[in-house]
């Protein structure tokens, strides 16, 4: 079994890095807080006696190999340590620190793996500062040229490449330098399913498709007091229509489609001026690619109609688009088998969130293990998973890795 | 007649003061740009040979009096020189500079007024940085204690009093130190009526009531990918519902009510996080006090229902509330009479915008003169009034002042 006390202590410690003035956890990719989190992780990798490697997109690897198996494809574990704004302490960090805990447990037990085992912290999984999300693993899997990723402009006008240089994590390895034999990612569910059903282990067999767009509505600003309702072309109102359209459509459909408007801003943003511009984001997800395309088409046609009836100009920019992914059936079965042997119930399920495993699945057999999230809450300071579940999940990861690393 | 060339030249000159990096005019109350605009106005007052006075709320007065009439109540002209964000060059400035032009014309013509004539630039009429709007004239009229106004916190966290100190316009006169015999404010219409009807002069007989509120919706942030639509409590969506409610209600009513949501912000404002907080402003206006109250009540009851159905917390803060105002009937007739004598059509009308005259009407007989706004556009860089209309309006002001100052 893994060293539960040390895992929980490190989770708490990493969770204190990047607190803002209000005590909120904000460790955005490429920020000073991200650097501090990375430094802590690298120190733990070193204290575990592993080799440290950093690639050009800033992904960090802790690699356990010996001279006999050094050239074999490694079993890769991992996730990310960047966070959203006002984050919880488990999202991503739990998978990274558990991966390290698994390697430490195997080393301590004198286990002799047939191939290297490595733990990764991928850059910018959250995509909050730089879109798209899962960027480090996407680049790693060859889905985005590293130069293009490094040139991504952030919400604050910074460039990811420059920020990685600044914080000392623009590494020298070529992304993809380690070709994994298999990839396993342990993560909190971030949704309500496991808790509601009282099941401690999720054997994640697929992951829904993700479509991110930024929409801008433009028209003519005018005076809030003197412009009759009939003469208004109101960008803010048009944006609000899109929000209610998406919500009503997704809520009334009998499908798992989710639609979210997370960012919104008005210009000039003055109390007595009819907005001349509204900019907002749309996050659409569905486990079925056909249905996701249908939702995107429905939004596009709604926008077209709205532009005509409201006499506004609407432009759409694609920020991210990932098809649904099916994970490796054999690894999913290893997860179920490990749970069974430890006397824990497990459940095959779909991931609602995007994860690095979704990208690595392009280049290696991959799967994920979920543990429950209290109240289904994530991307929120109240994100929580009971300690017993955290420890159980890490031990399932240990068991699965023990099997894969022996092959 | 007034010196048309000089008036137009000063309008252009003042309109260049406070241009931002994008060439947009932004001269918010108490800012460095406001200081520069005030300095220019004060220099023009001095070059006209008038006495300069500044009161504690920063209102600037240029006073023409001689030893014989020094103690009589003055005819007061004026408006404001602060602007909205991305403003036009006429809103406010036109009334202030025309007021000065009228005094200069009377002086040049050797006119001997029976009472002093003064021109005022009132502080923070727009209310963009510090609510409420018309603050300088409101304080002047005794509607808001000066200490309270000076302690107003701005949208950027600054305090108006500190900003006035900083820019050197925290004057020493007690607000209200000049008790006007009458107040006349010349302004662009900022709406479409005069242009549409081809009438050059508006004789403004009343001004609609204004209700400003800031509304905050709060709930629990959660993950955009994992939270089923049925389990969401989405502050952003609730805010959007209010926007569409206000628009539909005002548009479908057969009344002049106008409703605007000009400011909107989401928190944490991240693409994959369901908003935990949405803050927005509501600007409601109606010329009829009973109807304005009914609209406020309808909004309050909608918010109550929304809080219940969406399971969100909604709080409301009042930023400004002014009842409709009826102007002095005799001055309105003087405006119509002056137009008739100059062979210009005029029209009695309601002001859709709030103005300093609305406040000064509490302490002195007041009225306003409007000139057309091209396309009805204001609070926008494209705000425009043809030069002939600008000059005609200033000459009507001259004629009305000539009558009042002889009394
Ligand atoms: N796991 C997670 O929160 N990933 C961020 C990408 C997403 O929005 O799903
Ligand atoms: N005239 C003018 O734009 N005043 C600002 C106050 C208002 O919003 O009506």
Automatic annotation (TrEMBL), chains A, B:
A Pfam family it matches: Peptidase_M20
For Zn(2+) 2, which residues are the binding ones? 91, 126, 379
Identify the cofactor(s). Answer: Zn(2+)
- CDD domains per record: M20_bAS (cd03884)
What is the free-text note on the cofactor?
Binds 2 Zn(2+) ions per subunit.
The residues listed in the UniProt record as binding Zn(2+) 1, with positions renumbered to this chain, are 80, 91, 187
Which stretches make up the Peptidase M20 dimerisation domain? Answer: 208-307
User: What top-level branch of life does the organism fall under?
Assistant: Bacteria
Reported EC number(s) for this entry are 3.5.1.87
Q: Which Gene Ontology molecular function entries are recorded, alphabetically? A: hydrolase activity, acting on carbon-nitrogen (but not peptide) bonds, in linear amidines; metal ion binding; N-carbamoyl-L-amino-acid hydrolase activity
Q: Please name the top-level EC class of this enzyme.
A: hydrolase
Keyword Cell inner membrane found: no
What keywords are annotated for this sequence in UniProt?
Hydrolase, Metal-binding, Zinc
Family named by the database record: Belongs to the peptidase M20 family.
Which protein is depicted? N-carbamoyl-L-amino-acid hydrolase
